[in-house]
Amino acid sequence: MVKIRLRRMGAKGRPFYRVVVAESSTGRNGAFVETIGTYDPVAQPKLMEVKEDRAIHWLLQGAEPTETAAYILNKVGILPKFLEQRPNQKKKYAFLDKRTAAISVAATPAENA
User: Fold this and answer.
1) HEC states along the chain?
2) Could you state, in order of their start, the residue ranges of all structural domains in the chain?
3) Residue 17: pLDDT band by 50, 70, 90 thresholds?
4) Statement: 2-107 belongs to CATH 3.30.450.30
5) Which of 27, 29, 39, 89 is buried most, with the most CB atoms less than 10 Å from its CB?
């Protein structure tokens, strides 16, 4: 099975990730089929770049993104375009609504009563 996942790069304490298409049986930093983007979680704001045409191509071929990769694809607007083409896949990505809601609640400061 082919997956879209993150490959860790960068230095110790300064992570940088490549969004890659890889066989699920390979290790995190093992062989991969294609690099389709990058993710820099340290930069402010976080930098997320993904090649839209290649990501949609692999999703249509049946590649499954990991949870974090799906979140990145959703944030850059690729996953909604894919779901327009394949509406029957919406159930598979329902967890993104909960994750996005949890992140937005955590980002808002709590009011003192």
Assistant:
1) CEEEEEEEEEECCEEEEEEEEEECCCCCCCCCCEEEEEEECCCCCCEEEECHHHHHHHHHCCCEECHHHHHHHHHCCHHHHHHHHCHHHHHHHCHHHHHHHHHHHHHCCCCCC
2) 2-107
3) very high
4) no
5) 39
